[in-house]
Every structure is written in structure tokens, then in C-alpha cells.
């Protein structure tokens, strides 16, 4: 149902699973990337390797499932591509990004022949492998990014890229590299797909406001969803005239969002628990429940009275401590949500948080257990 | 960024494009509405009108209208009994509640101009309805500082 994996006390800033979901690579808020191998079912883990090449905090990790390559990016303005050699060691290759600020996020494209890196230099790097010189070439997308790029996500056609930024906008760009791929066919996003061409631009809110924390293309590529710091979830539909649906929440802002079906999303962030959102038939976004039941703080009458006076004395509170105990699996904000398993429709989502926990949520068993959840 | 550092010609007059005189007329009209409603003890009904289209602006020519509007909204909020506050809030739409939340935080910025007790009562009830997300929306909206 939900499996909780604890990897020490350091926050896990980013994580990515191997193609077979037996290994996970994550960074414990440091310059290292740890790769753990699961020891058969349950929650046993072996530390397989430490990828220790970055000088500063690792900000993004992505593990390509088919080609088994890992790309990592860091505040040290570099990205490395790691390939596992026949001797089992991970060999690194530096990718020269030519940026003068930290790299913030990285994602392999669906066909894994290129990857995108967002950075604080107001630039998105699209990197592809040049076999003639045996190095990774980085091309820049600059216009009209006005501030730090916080999140990137690829369209299934391997060419379009959604970019979220702290200039409060989400943009869809073409990252077509003519050296390595054929001309893409027209999509709902437009026909002209020269490199760096902006296909669409969406404002998180009309008067600016709310950094975009995470952006995600739906499996068919027609919709792009994002979460903003103004506690909102938004979906833009290219198949419906670029219509944007916004749901303003009464919760704290969410930090990461993924699609789990053509009409469902899972997002998580500062509220410590992943939340499911559904798109109704009429195109509206609705909250469809949390992936965890809200537990009420248990209070027997005797313990409650004593606890109340204790709290009044020690903490200066007048309730029985219900406000300060954390009743959720995650005890700190959830930094990243990833999907896994299943063909086309993911079986599970994994979340990593500021409490050093990695939790795997099995969607089908949660849906059957919690009847209020509509997935 | 001090006001004197910026050429006022560079800042838009208002977010909506309406002129300073236009907003002043609106505020004065709202003042009359408030006075009539206060005389009849019926200020509960005029919230939607008074919270609609506030004079958002960073331009100095709108300051007089903004000052008057601030005084007007605080008088309006203070005129409601604590027990009636939830009713008023539930009668408002999301945009109006957002404007009210912005004014509450403006009140908190100027404690010398305002009686703080009603600010906290209104804030508590508004957060019950809008949640912390409502507060986030005020904090992330650049217009919140433009009242």
C-alpha cells in the first residue's frame, strides 16, 4: 500500500528510479548522489554507490530507464552524465553548460537521446551527444525567459518542452535538434518547431504572482499541468484552444505534480501529503482526496486533561497538543513526486521529502481502500 | 526602491488603466453608499459593492483615493458585529474575499491607523473559510502592496 523507506535524517532533495525500479538514486541535500539497491521486496536497501563528482548541492537527478544512464545537475553550474561500465562502476562525463548560475532541474527526453537542464541563468540547456567528438553539446534556449527556470518536462514527441520559471510563467518551447532527429509532425501546440521557438506561454496569474514550482505534460501531450506558489493547480489544454483551468486551494503551496491518468493528477508539497486532482467531464479541476487518511489526534479523556495542563505549563498551549503533533507519513514538505510501474498508466507514485523519507504509494490498493478517493 | 528614485512616468497609473479621477469618484460614491447603509444599520449588504475593483496602483496620483478607500473599508469592517462576520464572509465571492484579505494585511501594516481587535476577528474567520491558501494568494500577489 504505502511503503516508507528511511534514509537517515537529511532531507532528500531529488530522486529517480532505475528502469526496473530496483534501484533508486537520490541526493540527501548534499553534493552526493546515493544509489541504493533494494534487497528483494520489503524495505531493505543496500548502498550500491555514491556518485561524488559535484562540488555543490545536487539539484536534479534523472535516470533514463531504457539506456540506463543517469544525468545529474548541481548548483556548481555543471551537469554530469553517468554511464555504468561493464565492471559495474559508474563513469562520468562532464557536460559543459556554459551557464553562470546554478542548474536547477534536469530531465531526459522520452527517447533518451537528449536532456534539458533548467538554470538560474534564465537559460534552458538542451544537451545531445555528438559522437564525432565524443562529447555532449549544449544548446541554449533564452528568449523570453526573464528569471530562474525551476522545472522542465518533455512532451511525448521528444521535441516539445514545458518550462516553468520564477517569472510566474509556464512556456512550451520546441527543443528540436536537427542533428539527431527527423522533423516532428504537427501537434496541438503548433506547426513551427524550429529550435527555441516558443509555442505557447501561460501566466500563472494575470497580474503575475506565484513562482511555478513544477510542470508536467499529460501522457498524450495535449495538456500541461503546473503548480504555483499561490497555492494553485493549473491545467492548460492545447486541444481546447489553450484554455487554462485554475483551481485555487485552501492549502499550503504544492511543489511537485505528475499525471497518473488522462484525467487525474497527483501533487504534493508543503502540506506533507500527496493530493489527487481530477478533471471532470466539463473540464473543471476538482480536489479528489488525499493519498492518506487524515488521522485525528487520539485523545482519551484522562490523558487529554493531563496533557492539556502539561501543555499549558510547558508549551503555553491550551489544547491537548493536537496542533503540534504530525499525523502524516511525511514529517516535512514533500520535495518531489515521481511515477513508476505500469505501461501508460503508473501503478505507484513515490515521494521524497525534507524528513529524509522516500515513500512509495501504491495507487490501486489506495484507491480500493479509501473509497472517497476517485482515481 | 524609494518613491523619489523612480520616474513616475514609468509606472502605470493603475492596474486596470482607469484614471486617478475615476477611482476618486468611485471611492467617494462608495463613501456615500456606506454612510446611507450605516444610517440604516445595514452595512452587511454593501460589502460586494465596496470590495469590488479597489484602486490598485503604485502611482502617487492614486494615493488620495487609496487613503480614502482604506479608511472606508476599515470603517465598514469595524461596523459589523463579531457574530455577523461569518455570514458576511459566506455571502462574498472568492475575488471579494481575496480583496478583503489584502485589506486585512494592510491594516496589520498600519496598526496606528486601525483598531486591531476587529482585524484579528475578521482574519480568523476569513482563514476558516479560505485556508492558508488564501493567505498565500495575498502574499504572492504584487497588487497586495498596491492598495
List keywords for this structure.
heterodimer, A: 375 residues, mainly beta, four-stranded antiparallel sheet, 2 helices, 28 strands, B: mainly alpha, globular
In words, what does this structure look like?
- The complex is a heterodimer of chains A (375) and B (147).
- Chain A has two helices and 28 strands.
- Chain A has helices spanning 301-314, 363-369; strands spanning 2-6, 14-17, 23-27, 33-38, 45-51, 58-63, 69-74, 79-84, 90-95, 103-108, 114-119, 124-130, 135-141, 149-154, 160-165, 169-174, 198-203, 212-217, 223-228, 232-237, 243-248, 254-261, 264-269, 275-279, 285-290, 334-340, 348-353, 357-362.
- The longest helix of chain A has 14 residues, at 301-314.
- The mean pLDDT of chain A is 91.
- Chain B is mainly α and 147 residues long.
- In chain B, 59% of the residues lie in helices and 0% in strands.
- Chain B has helices at residues 20-39, 47-51, 63-78, 85-90, 94-109, 116-139.
- Chain B starts with 19 loop residues before the first helix and ends in an 8-residue tail after the last helix.
Question: What is this structure, in a nutshell?
Answer:
The complex is a heterodimer of chains A (375) and B (147). With 375 residues, chain A is mostly beta strands.
Give the SSE map.
The complex is a heterodimer of chains A (about 375) and B (about 150).
Chain A: E1 2-6, E2 14-17, E3 23-27, E4 33-38, E5 45-51, E6 58-63, E7 69-74, E8 79-84, E9 90-95, E10 103-108, E11 114-119, E12 124-130, E13 135-141, E14 149-154, E15 160-165, E16 169-174, E17 198-203, E18 212-217, E19 223-228, E20 232-237, E21 243-248, E22 254-261, E23 264-269, E24 275-279, E25 285-290, H1 301-314, E26 334-340, E27 348-353, E28 357-362, H2 363-369
Antiparallel strand pairs in A: 1-28, 2-3, 3-4, 4-5, 6-7, 7-8, 8-9, 10-11, 11-12, 12-13, 14-15, 15-16, 16-17, 18-19, 19-20, 20-21, 22-23, 23-24, 24-25, 26-27, 27-28
Chain B: H1 20-39, H2 47-51, H3 63-78, H4 85-90, H5 94-109, H6 116-139
Helix pairs in contact in B: 1-3, 5-6
